[in-house]
Amino acid sequence: DEQLNLDDGRWEDIHVVTGALKLFLRELPEGVVTAGANIPPCPPSLAEIQDLSLRGRCIRDLVQSLPPAHHDTMKVLFRHLCRVVEHKEENRMSVQSVAIVFGPTLLRPASEEGNMAMHMVFQNQVVEHILNHYGYIF
Q: How many distinct structural domains can be found in the chain?
């Protein structure tokens, strides 16, 4: 219910806006990619798939299977992130940089168990894949 004045000078700093977006996504009761999302015949963890073509199809199927609100949010967010990457020469935000920034926020591990570093690497790989194949996935 808070009214924001987007003309306020504090919103001119892109780091403030990006931080607010990441905080919003992180504080959602359920992540944008739902924890229970799993598509047969894909294994429980996309990280287990060595065949990159199969992994790509599983990622697409996963995104397509999300509830409409989650799917639509991802579509709009990734469309915007693709536009950010298009300007990487000016903003220094390559596909890899965007994946590092948004991977952990968008793809939360199902549990806090396991190797967090490996979770982060995988999260980044999935976000990179979606950015690189936006048209195929959406």
A: 1
